[in-house]
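mind reviewing this stuff:

——
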Amino acid sequence: MTEKLLSLYDDKYRQKNIMAKMMRAVRFFTLLGIALFLSFPIYSDVIPDDSYIAGYATGMLKRDFQLDLSSLVVRNGVITLPVGNLSPEDRAQVQQMLSEIPGVTGVELVEGVPQQELAVLPPPAKQETPITPSGKVAEVFPTGFLPTGHLFLPLLADPRWAHFSASYRNYVGADIDGENNGAVSFGETIPFYRANLGQTTIQWEAGLQAGVFSDFNLDAKSSDLINTDFIASVYSSMRMGQLSAFARIFHQSSHLGDEFLLRTRLERVNLSYEGADLKLSYELPYGIRVYGGGGGIFHKHPSTIKPWSIQYGLEFRSPWRLDFAAMRPLLAVDLKNHQQNDWNVDVSARAGFQFDTHQIFGRKLQFMIEYFNGNSPTGQFYKEKAEYLGIGAHYHF
């Protein structure tokens, strides 16, 4: 009788604890949303008129580039600038610098257009530059072997996008092992070769994407390694204006930690498979991006795994920086549905800030809070439900 009462008490206490954590999570995200909303007036006030943008751009470029800045034109937030004989690498840098100026809605780099012709150019109707063999240059990335940048931007909220990160996660509901976990990832997307299609500004690249993702139980005495996922792929991506695509053939394998196995005596599954997927992305004005795609797996173990999945999401990379600091807000939601889990949706949401002036090895530093609810992205636990809140540091090119 006493044992039953204790068991009922434990169940009620556990449920009460979960509810309290969920309420804290709701309050946390509500306060974050209010803070981000209230921060918009802080930097919306620095969205100036065209003359201010022109002066800002001239000051930035005068120091580093030999350009005819007297021919720089700004109309409705769109900068038009002759780039002369700048190399593709310098053009990409100029494009990036100008696009980050507060209030800029588009950048058009042109070649050899005299000042008097620029004066009568009609205002651009949209940010995307037409693809023509004339002097206009859209956002063209450096070409050749081992180029810089990426044609397809990283997915900010995808739990399995290869990049460098370190996060703390507190499980508010179901967990894979312990309420307090640490998660790290090591990886990158490396383009080996990039080129244009003929004389157009449509570009393609091919390369390697690889990442290692590990989870640790911080409640265990030795912070046991729970699981490590290894993902490696060859990929090809393409970009045409604001539209980009990313296709890959990948391998994934999952390995449980020795200490975790000894402590839990869990029966290990030799989870390993190869697959292929395709994602399409379109970048809308004001830093908004939508994407979607799907894929399947083959040569899988265990053979009972169902192959198909879809992925889609929404991101906001603020084109404006806060007035008091060189950082910009970020918001992202990534959604996945797997046939293996009866097409139930896995929700991964992240929000935070990117520090533009703090870079390590060319990567911009991001601090993001995160929320996940769905079947665990941790390989060996793909059938288990998980829900957590976390905070982490991320480095992306």
About this structure: Residues 1-43 form one domain.
